[in-house]
Amino acid sequence: MTNKLAFPAKEPVLAKIADSDSLFPVHRIFCVGRNYHAHATEMGVTVDKSTQEPFYFLKDSSTYVASGSSIEYPPQTANYHYEMEFVVAIGKAGFNVNEDQAESLIFGYACGLDMTRRDLQLKARETGRPWDLGKDFEESSILAPIVPIAKTGVLTEGKIELAVNGEIKQSSDLNLLIWNVREIIAHLSKFYHLQPGDLIYTGTPDGVGPVIKGDHITGSISNIGKIDLKISI
């Protein structure tokens, strides 16, 4: 007897690749928390790399939204924040890799937005609960087309910037990441078997803040490209 699905299986989540007809099947979305000192400070915490390790939260692949989209203001929040991020796309499997091997796992890079229900995140933080309601919700992982590393080479620096309605809100450099990409991949691979299709949002600079209905978010990272998002009225 052949088993039948009780309902249709989830469709694969397919992200765009710059200047290509091919698509990138999204497997998992990992996000690095507090990976710029200035952002950690504005969130009321300090990070000491000599005594602390990176930490992560995950978002479901269904939260993916392509750059250029218009999305709804999310439910159950009154403090909806943008977070501009440098995203690393994994194209090769790896487990417990060292830093020298880490770059061989990279498929490419992209601009990303980690949209956040800040009030729900902070409420969870204050009560010692997981951040899921504040982070892992529909239409919260915005991604521009992925640029293959073959076109960019390994990136360790470059301006990362975000504007709301044309006004610059975030401006920093990738060389200010507390844990760089090689360190993040090597560390994360101690805990997970990284797979092709994994995305790593590497953290946001300082300057995060709220948006409201009708706002237009734009961002860019040197040598990678731009990202664009509108919040529906």
TrEMBL record:
InterPro entries: Fumarylacetoacetase-like_C, Fumarylacetoacetase_C_sf. The keyword Lyase does not apply. Pfam families: FAA_hydrolase. Keywords: Hydrolase, Metal-binding. Residues 29-228 form the Fumarylacetoacetase-like C-terminal domain. GO terms for molecular function: acetylpyruvate hydrolase activity; metal ion binding. PANTHER family: ACYLPYRUVASE (PTHR11820), FLUTATHIONE S-TRANSFERASE (PTHR11820:SF90). This is Fumarylacetoacetate (FAA) hydrolase family protein. The lineage of its organism: Bacteria, Pseudomonadati, Pseudomonadota, Gammaproteobacteria, Oceanospirillales.
